[in-house]
Design a protein that fits this description.
The chain is an all-alpha fold and 210 residues long. The protein contains 9 helices and no strands. The protein is globular and about 55 Å long.
């Protein structure tokens, strides 16, 4: 099985990934502010299902595709970098709104909230890269079944992501209120988010397949 040191290291990596602004965070905050905490929690459950899909795909050898066909890895990597740059531009372009700025969203039923959360995560390039290129680097064939190792690492990632995102959902309204009283900080937050996303995109674009 995976050593405790490896699990801890992967937990730290997972924490860094979930704390980086991206589609999941933006969607959960927006939905929680617009429709309340319950809607945010339901959306979060959909996001978690997206993680489970990636775990299962990784456990059953989807990463082999990246080894057999390196160009597929490069395509996914560049597509992910391009998408992150697109998000960065949306954060800083003239007239852009902060993720913490209240906005009008339609009131959707629980089923749609769950589905939108699921699709937001499933189409998130950051998560695709995490599972398909990063997770296998923490696996060691000498420690037994890679299937069980993938499951253990995936469980760690889901636990970290669920905890952080739940805190985001529960605190979104309060944080939005704080920013709402400080317009200057809304602008600062947008530029910080844009900078983080740009840095992640550049790092991803130049990342080498291990």
């Amino acid at each position: 099985m995976v050593s405790q040191g490896t699990l801890l290291a992967f937990a730290v990596v997972s924490l860094g990934m979930v704390c980086t602004p991206g589609p999941n965070m933006i969607y959960l905050i927006s939905r929680s502010i617009a429709q309340g905490r319950l809607a945010g929690v339901i959306s979060l459950l959909g996001v978690m299902l997206g993680f489970i899909v990636y775990i299962v795909a990784t456990m059953f050898g989807l990463t082999v595709l990246f080894t057999a066909v390196p160009y597929v890895f490069e395509a996914v990597k560049l597509a992910g970098a391009a998408y992150l740059l697109y998000l960065a531009w949306n954060a800083v372009k003239p007239g852009a709104a902060s993720v913490f700025e209240p906005r009008a969203l339609t009131v959707d039923p629980p089923k749609k909230l769950f589905l939108m959360g699921f699709m937001t995560n499933l189409l998130n390039p950051k998560i695709a890269i995490l599972y398909m290129s990063l997770l296998p680097q923490f696996e060691d064939p000498a420690r037994g079944s890679l299937l069980l190792q993938s499951a253990a690492l995936g469980l760690v990632q889901i636990s970290v992501s669920f905890t952080v995102n739940l805190l985001i959902v529960l605190g979104a309204s309060r944080v939005a209120l704080w920013f709402g009283k400080r317009p200057a900080w809304l602008r600062v937050q947008r530029w910080i988010m844009g900078g983080v996303l740009t840095g992640l995109a550049v790092r991803l674009a130049f990342e080498r397949r291990q």
